[in-house]
């Protein structure tokens, strides 16, 4: 399976489709899930210190014996660890748990108002030191990015935020593109909340795909890096089996109208 790759604003290549491993009640299953995903052709694993499973990701990488440079690993600094010195320490702990010397992408997990400026300075240092191949942010909308650009010496390579037809904000995508930041979407499957939406079911049936596969494909067709999460083998395989069909322009336009602000995470617009 040839998963498409995108080139970030600093020339680093990143797979467009990967596995998210936010699974707080299933962390014991994360290693197996990562192994299954890698077996299915996945080469992007998205973890975070807050998920408590960086070690399981490392164990899976070791078990599969894939060369380190073949798997793109993202991790993130959690809210409690933000601030300049604390971020640098948190980053070292993440590398230790992941058993790697360099992470492919390091993100600020949420824009914590009182610390995010210093946290970005720490990420710029990590990047300058060659410890992260790319740095970026997560859950940032325009106001947070405007503030970051007042001080940033490095443009974030990626902005990861919740992305599905139900929280589709075209202006956020447009802003990222204007600033040469690659959008990455998490929770494309809305944690199953919309799997039986009759509008979604009707479109999925046209393509002989599940509603989950349709949601992953919709995100990819918006040119957004997409990281569906699952710990079930069949579901993981199905989430990667989305490269053999294309949603028509008409159906994309219809799905773009499903916005109702359904989210599995807080709305970044509520963060000052």
Descriptive tags:
single chain; 272 residues; alpha/beta; TIM Barrel; 8-stranded parallel beta sheet; 10 helices; 10 strands; 39% helix; globular; NAD(P)_OxRdtase_dom_sf; AKR
CATH class: Alpha Beta
Biggest sheet layout: 8 strands, parallel
CATH architecture: Alpha-Beta Barrel
Compute the average pLDDT.
97
Pfam family, one: Aldo_ket_red
Protein name: Aldo/keto reductase
Organism: Spirosoma soli
Keywords: NADP, Oxidoreductase
Put the structure in a nutshell.
The chain is 39% helix and 14% strand.
Structure explained in plain terms:
39% of the residues lie in helices and 14% in strands. The chain has ten helices and ten strands. The termini are far apart. The model has no long low-confidence stretch (mean pLDDT 97). The protein is globular, with a radius of gyration of 18 Å. Helix 1 packs parallel to helix 2 (54-64) and helix 3 crosses helix 4. The chain has a single domain (5-188, 223-231), classed as NADP-dependent oxidoreductase domain (TIM Barrel, Alpha-Beta Barrel), CATH 3.20.20. It is an alpha/beta fold and 272 residues long. This is Aldo/keto reductase. Keywords: NADP, Oxidoreductase. Residues 23-258 form the NADP-dependent oxidoreductase domain. InterPro entries: AKR (IPR020471), Aldo/ket_reductase_CS (IPR018170), NAD(P)_OxRdtase_dom_sf (IPR036812), NADP_OxRdtase_dom (IPR023210).
